[in-house]
Amino acid sequence: MAKGVILEIRAGAGGDEAAIFAANLFRMYSRYAQSQGWSFLVIDESRNSIGGLKEITMEITGAESYEQLKNESGVHRVQRVPKTEKNGRVHTSTATVAILPKVDAAEIRINPQDLQIDAVRSSGPGGQNVNKRSTAVRIVHLPTNTVVFSQTERSQAQNKEIAMEILRAKVYENMRNREMASLSQERRAQIGTADRSEKIRTYNYPQNRITDHRIGKSWHDLETIIDGKMDPIVKAFRITADKTDL
Fold first, then answer.
1. Nearest C-alpha neighbor of 70 from the set 128, 7, 130, 112
2. Could you report the per-residue pLDDT of 219-229, keeping only the tens digit for each?
3. Alpha carbon distance 221, 208 (integer Å)
4. What residues pair up with 136 in beta bridges, in sequence order?
């Protein structure tokens, strides 16, 4: 059983509001991780000018973290009135979530000759360099054209180690889905195209309701769940899985 996950969140359709929603999801997952006693580390992130997240990659380590979060993969849709909306209209935006199990080095062998490893400067909001030394690491797995990036640590060696963890997770997921031509195709299958119509879950603020469209269940305590108290959703999926196994 996986002892941790690589969690990726990307803003989808909806511009700045989608990025704000992506930041809401990051807050939800990070708070849930804290409530479970899991450790988490932000590996890479890109924010817009108003604090929303264009994308973020984080590593969560803890018992049953993969089992509890694996059902979060997909397109999440939010319906609400953005703070920037002057006419009070409800907007629909999306963000995508991808969950990959962490893989031990002993479980998968990656040929060093298949890797292109570059040391680059860490970047901050807006893309400006925040470190004069090249401590961030970008690794490309040439056979699958999988690109990973880590800039969370000040040491180049530490960033390389973290980037390799992400790479192993992605290559392993790719191997598990051999019918896919590449990991990028696997991710598209997992999270869709981020179009508003492709959703696994809807967060409807005017009605204070979260609906998961896969199991046909709704919860009417949206603010509590988005604040990190995800136990009702996790338990609902476990009950559904138990019934399926009967």
1. 7
2. 999 999 999 99
3. 6
4. 120
